[in-house]
Amino acid sequence: MTAELTFPLLSLMIAVPLVAALATALGGTLVTRRAAIVAALIDVGLAIAALVVHLADPSLALADPLDPLTWLFGHPVLRLDRLSAPLLVFAALISLVAVMVAPRTALRASLLRRNLFAQAVLLATFATREPAVMAAMWCLGALPPLLELRSAGAAGRPALRVFAIYMGAGAAAFIGGVALTGGEHGLLASVLLVLAVMIRKGIFPLHSWMPELFEHAPLGVSTLFNAPQVGAYVAATLVIPSEPAAALDVVGVASIITALYGSAMALVQRGARRAYGYIFMSQSALVMLGFECLSAEGVTGALAFWLSSGVALAGLGLALWVLEARRGALRVDRLHGGYERTPLLATMFLVFGVGTVGFPGTYGFVGQEMLLDGAVHVFPGLSVAVALASALGGLAVMRIYFSLFTGAPAQGGLTQRLHRRERLGFALLGAVLLVFGIWPRPAVELQSAVAAELLRARAVAVEGR
After folding, report:
1. How far apart are CA 3 and CA 56, in angstroms?
2. Using CA atoms, how far apart are residues 447 and 291, in angstroms rounded to an integer?
3. 184 has pLDDT over 70
4. Alpha-carbon distance 91 to 275, whole Å?
5. CB distance 115 to 95 below 8 Å
6. C-beta of residue 15 within 8 angstroms of C-beta of residue 45
7. Is 22 exposed, middle or buried (0-12, 13-18, 19+ CB in 10 A)?
8. Per residue in 288-328, pLDDT tens?
9. By CB neighbour count within 10 A (0-12 exposed, 13-18 middle, 19+ buried), where does 187 fall?
10. Dist CA 302 CA 196 (whole Å)
C-alpha cells in the first residue's frame, strides 16, 4: 500500500545539496566546506526524520507530496519504504563524514561542489524504484569521479580511460535492460541488467576500473562513489525480483571468486590505495553473494553486511585519505612507525579495518554470519571460499595497519593528531559500527522484513512466468 508523506522530506533531501552547490558557485574552499557541512547535516536530520516516520507504519510505502516527476510518469516516483529508509540515513551520514574529515590540503571548492552533486544524486537513487530514474541517476553518479580523474591531467589519464570505458558500458547495459524490460526480449533485458550490476560492483572479471579509481582519484571521491554500493540497490530492486535462477547462480559464483581474488590481491600490493581498492572489491562482492542465495538468512545477511561494510569501508578509506594528507603517498611493503604521532587515527583505522571483515563486536559480524549460513545451503561446495576470503581480507587489513602504524618510532616531526571535526566524523561512523554490533536486533528485524518482501516479490514474478 502507498500513502503520502505529510511533509516533502525526500524532495528537500535532494534539493538541499543542489542549492548549496549553486549558492557557493563563486565561493572559496572554506565557504564551500561550511555550506557542504550544513547541507549534509540538514540531510542527516531529514533522513532520520524520514526513518522515524516510516517506522510508525513500516507496511506503507510513502510518496513525496512535492515529487517533481509525477507529471512526467503519471505516478509518484520518490517514495520511502523499508529498503530506502535506512539507506537514506546511511547515504547522508557518509556524505557528512566525508566533508567533515576531508583534509585541507586535498580540498578544492570544485571538489566540494561535485561531492554535493554526488550526494544529491545518491539520495535520489535510493529514494526511487522507477527504473528510468534509476538509470538516469546511474549515469549522473559517474560524473564526479570522471571529472576528478580528468582534472588530474596526464597522471590520471590511464585511469580515466579505464573508468570511462567500464562506466560507459555499464550505463549502456543498464539503459538497454530498462528499455527492454517487459517486452518480448525479456531474457536479453535480464542479461543486460545483470551485466550492469556486475560492472558497477566490480565483480570479476569486470573489476579492473575499481583499483584504478582508488589509486588515482581523490580518496574521498572514490569512497563516496563506491561505499553506498548503488549496484547492490539495483540488484535488490530490479534483479532479485525477476531474474532467472541461472543468472543469479552465475553472479553468485562470480561473487565468490571476486571475494577470494580481491582479498588475495590486497595481500601483495605495495601501495595502500590499491590494497584498499582490492579489499573494497572483495568485501562488497560478498553482498552480491548473499542476494543470490535467495534464502531469508542469506538476503538478510546481505542487507546487514551491505550497510556495515559500507560504513566500515567508508571509514577505512577516509582514514587513509586523512593519513595520506599528513604523510604523503602511503606504501605497505615496509614498516613506517608513527602510531605515537597519530594514536587516535590508528585506533579508528583498526576499528574500521576489522569492521570490514565482520570482526565480532561490529555490525559486520552479524551480517557475515547470516550471509555465510545462507551461502552454505546454496553454494555448499564453495562456501569454504567465503570463509577463506574473509580470513585473507582480515590478514590484508592487519598488514596495512602494521605497515602504516607500527615499527620503529618515527624520528622528528610534529604530532599529527586529528582536528576536532575529524575526531567527530570518525566517531560518528565508529559509533554506528559498534552500537549495532552490540545491539543488532532493531536493524536485523528491519532488514529481515525487507528480505521477506524481496523474496515475496520474486515468488510472485516466478509464478507469473
Report:
1. 13
2. 13
3. no
4. 24
5. yes
6. no
7. exposed
8. 888 877 778 888 888 888 888 889 999 999 999 988 888 88
9. exposed
10. 19
Inter-residue contact 324 to 219 (CB < 8 Å):
yes
d(CA 139, CA 186): 22
The amino acid at 311: V
Buried b (16+ CB within 10 A) or exposed e, 57-81: eeebbbbbbebebeeeeeebbbbbb
Strand 2-4, strand 79-80: pairing: unpaired
Which residue's C-alpha cell is 532520520?
48
All cell numbers assigned to 50? 524520514
Whole-angstrom distance, CA of residue 203 vs CA of residue 200: 8
pTM of the complete model beyond 0.70: yes
Q: Omega before 205 cis (within 30°)?
A: yes
Please provide the DSSP assignment of 357-424 as one string: TT-TTSHHHHHHHHHHHHHHHH-TTTHHHHHHHHHHHHHHHHHHHHHHH-SSPPPSS---PPPHHHHH
Residue 298, all three cell numbers: 542469506
Q: What is the DSSP letter of 244?
A: -
b/e code 393-415 from CB counts within 10 Å (16+ = b): bbebbebbbebbbeeeebeeeee
| pLDDT the model gives residue 30 | 75
Query: How many Å apart are CA 190 and CA 192, to the nearest integer?
Result: 5
pLDDT tens sequence across 48-71: 999 988 888 777 778 888 888 888
In angstroms, rounded to a whole number, what is the distance separating the alpha carbons of residues 173 and 169? 6
d(CA 440, CA 410): 40
Three-class SS of residue 202? coil
CB 444 within 8 A of CB 366: yes
Q: pLDDT tens across 220-240, in order?
A: 888 889 999 999 999 888 888
What one-character-per-residue DSSP string does 364-382 give? HHHHHHHHHHHHHHH-TTT
Terminal CA-CA length for the chain: 24
How big is the CA angle at 201 (ends 274 and 225), to the nearest 5 degrees?
70
DSSP conformational letter for 79: E
- Rounded Cα–Cα distance for residues 372 and 387 (Å): 8
How many angstroms separate the Cα of 279 from the Cα of each of 20, 123, 303, 312, 333? 33, 25, 19, 11, 16
317-354: buried (b, 16+ CB within 10 Å) or exposed (e) per residue? bbbbbbbbbbbeebebeeebebbebbeebbebbbbbbb
Return phi, psi of residue 321, to 5°: -60, -45
